[in-house]
From TrEMBL:
GO terms for biological process: bacterial-type flagellum assembly; bacterial-type flagellum-dependent cell motility. This is Flagellar secretion chaperone FliS. Gene3D superfamilies: Flagellar protein FliS. The keyword Chaperone applies. CDD domains: FliS. SUPFAM superfamilies: Flagellar export chaperone FliS. The keyword Oxidoreductase does not apply. It is found in: Cytoplasm, Cytosol. Signal peptide: none annotated. Keywords: Bacterial flagellum biogenesis, Cell projection, Chaperone, Cilium, Cytoplasm, Flagellum. The gene is fliS. It comes from the Bacteria. Its main location: cytoplasm. Belongs to the FliS family.
Length: 143
């Protein structure tokens, strides 16, 4: 997941922070990046700057796609499936916003992603470390 997250993050044009970030921080930066691009798209819609709207919505979709692709679907956890479905919903909503310029729909979509980010931000350090340890063990067993 970490390498997929790094590649995804690099593909959507982010800062050099990603090189030194742990997997938790990479996902945190992706979530914030998607929210930032959605906020820019909202402002562009309000200004009727449809080129900027399209650019920022496209980047938002790319980031959310990267988040979805980074999910470890081999882990048969309910949370993984729920996140996959939420990311699919967000992508669908952003596609609709791109067509109909519906700011309310965009705000609702941002709310959903903000809830995911708040949950991610609240993960205790001990749980993050345990997750990294388990991932390393799975990778070592598969190697």
């Amino acid at each position: 997941m970490y390498n997929k997250g790094l590649k995804a993050y690099a593909s959507v044009g982010v800062s050099n922070q990603v090189v030194t970030a742990d997997p938790y921080r990479v996902i945190q930066m992706l979530l914030q990046g998607a929210l930032d691009k959605m906020a820019y798209a909202k402002g562009a819609i309000e200004r009727k700057d449809f080129a900027a709207k399209a650019e920022n919505l496209t980047k938002s979709v790319a980031i959310v796609n990267a988040l979805q692709d980074a999910l470890d679907m081999d882990v048969k956890a309910e949370v993984t499936n729920n996140l996959f479905d939420l990311y699919s919903f967000i992508i669908d909503q952003l596609t609709d916003v791109s067509v109909d310029n519906d700011i309310t729909k965009l705000e609702e979509t941002m709310f959903v992603l903000r809830q995911i980010k708040e949950g991610w931000d609240a993960i205790p350090v001990s749980a993050r470390e345990e997750g990294l340890r388990m991932q390393a063990e799975r990778q070592a067993a598969g190697a």
